[in-house]
Amino acid sequence: MSVKKLNIIILLIMLCAALTSASSFKLGGYYRSWAQYDYPPSRIPFDRLTHIFHAFAWPESDGRLAYDAAFLNPELLQKAHQVNVKVLLALGGAVNSGGFAAMAANDNARARFIENVAQFLQTHHYDGVDIDWEFPQSATDRLNLVKLVNELRQKLDTLSGDLLITMAVPVNDWYGRWFQFEVLKNMVDWFNAMTYDFHGSWTAHSGHNAPLYSPSPQVDACGSVDDGIRYLLNERGLPPEKILLGLAFYGREFNSHGLYQSATGGDVTYGYADIVALIGQGWNYRWDDVSKVPYLINSASAKLITYDDTLSIALKCRYALDNHLAGCMTWALGHDQLGDRQPLLQKASEILQIWTDLEESPENLLPAQLELHVQPNPLQAHVTFRLILRTKQRISLRLWDLNGRLVATIIHNKEFSEGEYSLRWQAAGLAAGAYIVELQNNFQTINQKLVLLK
Fold first, then answer.
1. Domain end residue (candidates: 308, 332, 363)
2. What pLDDT digit, counting tens, does each position of 19-63 carry?
3. Residues with Cβ within 8 Å of residue 429, at least 6 apart in sequence
């Protein structure tokens, strides 16, 4: 067999393996019906998603299915289905879960609600239902939730289309004790882990909204993404392939002089796009290398905002893959709109290898053709970029700020031969803070965070 033929066979095997891997991960996003005027379906990058949870309809105590007058959105379902993205009807939520307990406790109301949901799914061509009961609060609620899901599962199984049931769930025992996971896992297709809101107005101190890891045991950190996933896996026995890790595309503001200090507030939230616009406007960027998330400090007004950026989102998606989870979900789509870019969603889809058109992401199908190493980092005046190129190729090297603005083009579409290159660059005229270094060829993009000190 010739070397050329052997290389073709190896490439085909790699392509098949990559396709199998990519298709196995999920990336779901909650689409807020009340945000559809600022973020219509035409702005959703459906090729970056596998599932959409259309939020929210809700149960009335007598079993009626309720939703706002402007909730129905045929365009959302049409555009999603055109690229094989499934849309689930999300039920409840933090504001509209009040009817669950009474409805689930009454046999007639429960049966009526299930019929109403089934009819709604069929009429409007949804692919399933996401139950977001926030939250059951008693042993009675726990049993009635099982009844509701069991009977709903039986009803949906009689309909055509392999309709899904998913469930948004807490990640600690405060509310998690009222979920009978050992039974529910046999009826629910997967669970959307709400791995965020670890700090807020309910805590006496400031802290990260969604830390990947907790700080030292001496700090009352109120939990982390890792703690929450370990709770579901180890304490509650959920299989990893039935867990989507929750990604927060928003942050929280505290009145506080620093992280894990006495605080008020925590009830004001901002989308990612609003947060990054504050950087340099009295707000200074900080990175917590223990919890692996960023935050902003405004010393003049004694305020702190905790949130997620592209780096922390990438680390969480990698965590999901390393722990063999089914993928990730986000609250909420549209929070990261920066002009025509949605950087958090894009980063999540890149890590999870979510795409619908092979031609759009060939970098996921080929071996890495380039590497980027940055030293020193943090830097004060000069930085050296070490580039490793495994083939002859054209590359570009750019620097972006955290608002998504291009700061510098260091290399523009220049052809290099295979080899290793070192480029020393002076960061003259740049303000102290965090930046993103982007190395790109026709098939691959590498992003690294760069911190400039003054």
1. 363
2. 434 448 999 999 999 999 999 999 999 999 999 999 999 999 999
3. none
Q: What's the predicted TM-score (pTM) here?
A: 0.78
Residue 334 and residue 422 share a domain: no
The Cα–Cα gap between 213 and 235 comes to 18
User: Any idea what the CATH number is for the domain that residue 206 is in?
Assistant: 3.20.20.80
pLDDT digits 0-9 by tens, 333-381:
999 999 889 999 999 999 998 754 433 333 333 445 788 999 999 988 8
| pLDDT score of 316 more than 70 | yes
Question: Is 302 found in the same domain as 184?
Answer: yes
Residues 356 and 374 both lie in one domain: no
As given in the structure block, the two tokens for residue 173 are 């025992």
CB 416 within 8 A of CB 393: yes
What angle is formed at CA 80 by the lines to CA 361 and CA 244, rounded to 5 degrees? 70
The verdict on 391 and 356 lying in the same domain is no
Looking at the structure, do residues 238 and 386 belong to the same domain, yes or no?
no
Instruction: Looking at the structure, tell me whether residues 155 and 36 fall in a common domain.
Output: yes
Cα torsion through 41, 45, 50, 52, rounded to 10: -30
Please check whether residues 96 and 225 belong to one and the same domain. yes
CA distance 119 to 156: 10
Range of the domain at 374: 368-452
Extract long-range pairs of 180-185: CB within 8 Å, 24+ residues apart: 180/142, 180/143, 180/145, 180/146, 181/232, 181/236, 181/237, 181/238, 182/236, 182/237, 183/146, 184/145, 184/146, 184/149, 185/237, 185/238, 185/239, 185/242
Long-range CB pairs of 38-41 (<8 Å, 24+ gap) are 38/334, 39/333, 39/334, 39/337, 40/75, 41/73, 41/75, 41/76, 41/79, 41/80
Instruction: From 363, 392, 422, give the residue that closes a domain.
Output: 363
DSSP secondary structure, 196-211, as one string: --SSSTTSSB---SS-
Find out whether 49 and 27 touch, Cβ atoms under 8 Å.
Answer: yes
* Domain count for the chain: 2
- pLDDT band per the 50, 70, 90 thresholds, residue 449: confident
Long-range contacts of 262-270 (CB under 8 A, 24+ apart): 262/204, 262/205, 262/206, 263/203, 263/204, 263/205, 263/206, 263/304, 265/201, 265/303, 266/199, 266/200, 266/201, 266/202, 266/203, 266/206, 267/200, 267/201, 270/305, 270/307
How far is CA 380 from its chain centroid? 33
